[in-house]
Amino acid sequence: MRIILTLVLAVFLILPTKAQDAHDPEAKKILEKISTTTQGYNSLRASFVWTLENKAEKTKDSKNGSMFIKGGKYKLILQGTEIFSDGNSTWTYSKDANEITISSVEEDEESIVSNPAKIFDLYKSGFKYALKGEAEVQAKVKVDGKETTAKKNCYVIDLYPENPKGKEFHTVQLLVEKSSTQIVCIDIKFKNGSDQLIEILDYKPNVTMPDNLFIYQESKYPGVEVNDMR
To answer: Among 99, 124, 145, 192, which residue has the least CB neighbours within 10 Å?
Structure first.
């Protein structure tokens, strides 16, 4: 099972779009600042709301999750599913099936699919991008452990795959808060009309994380069935 992270946008108004090239320099400045800031952290923990919306079938499913990133290592926890990687192997745990699938990390995998840490560097390879304007967003946030909402002024940046053939999605839209230059939302728009969305509720940089957080520890998963696909 693979999780594509994205963000939910509440109500927003995109300003008029201007003509831009395949690698818009205005968008690049913002994206580079996000990347540089994130690379300066020793680690990053974030909580989020993940939503899958199928507009054709008028269905929507939302779940709360947590994300842990340390260098090239990561762990995702999303209501009964855990995906974690030490940079060489990836373990996917399903609580309902009580099984773990192990796979190798492939260099040519879609970065937004295989490694959430790559979200912050997504623009560097395989994508065109453009600053579409600005948006005023009523975003979900977490304050003192409680979920609430707050108004945020954001840049709207669209990323498009340079080679769209064979891709299931056509656009990755980022909402980036202007004051903090933090990603507020990611919206992956699929060719079938559905969206996978995430609202990032909070960021906690430089949190202490043991390395064994990102590897399979047999003692923590008693009786689990292991499928090693490496």
So the answer is: 145
